Amino acid sequence: MSTKITPSSLPNPNATDGIAEPSVLNEKRRPRWQWLEPLILLSPSGLWLALLLVLPTLVIFELSLVPNIKPGEVVNPSGIENYLRVFEPINLQVMGRSVFFAVTSTVICLLLGFPVAYWIAQMAPKRWQNLLLLGFILPQFTSSLLRSYAWITILRPTGVLNTVLTSIGLPALELLNNSPAVLIGMAYSYLPYMVLILYASLEKLDRRLLEASADLGANPVQTFWKVTVPQCLPGIAAASLLVFISGLGDFVDPELLGGASSMTGARLIYNQFLGATQNWGFGSALSVVLITAVSVAIALLIKYGDREATAQR
Asked: Using one digit for the tens of pLDDT, what is the confidence trace for 122-132?
């Protein structure tokens, strides 16, 4: 009697004779509370953010809905009068000055920082790169107040700058207590941030594309705009946004270098909380507007910056 052998009757070499697959065993051995592990790891930073960022922001938002509230008064939200005051012409002028200082200092830092970062990342000897970067970081270890007072010593009418200018026959400059002094101080304060972030982006520059551009007949200017800038565009956006946000909320430089004619949003908020005519509601409304503008800028960078980086890959 012959037996017919079919493919289904042959033994399966991959079969395990009742033994479950390793992956199945691992899934069965996993504890049911494993989903708590990420929460446990994130809980310290989450509590820190909740206590020092989320809750204070909610308190500020609640105060922004109370008109003309003073310290010690009962918080009773009743309307958006404070937000309407933000858009009064005089307050818009102050906020516009803050935006002007932030944008202008960002452009100055980008124009000064990009060549420096490019030279350190692509042209400086490798053994000197860390030392050169350290030279940009060291000023940040000193207080911002000391740096501003140093610029006062340099820029005042009888300061170092005017002494040098008059000694060589040039006229003295009236920079202190004016907008140029504020821009000089802000650019000096935020230039290291620009250089460090641009350096991290330019260090990863694909030199093969630069060589290919030169082989195809492109001049250095064309190579810069069509090859170098697109590759480091996410770094430029990140560095510019960091400088812009820092400049938008800068208080020390406009206060010490700009004088009374350089009122900014940060100084206006300070006056509402600690000035002679305190109005915590209006100061809170200004703070909420500033926080919202910064949050929108960060969200745009996260969305379009990541998209640009992914497209380049």
From this structure: 888 888 888 88
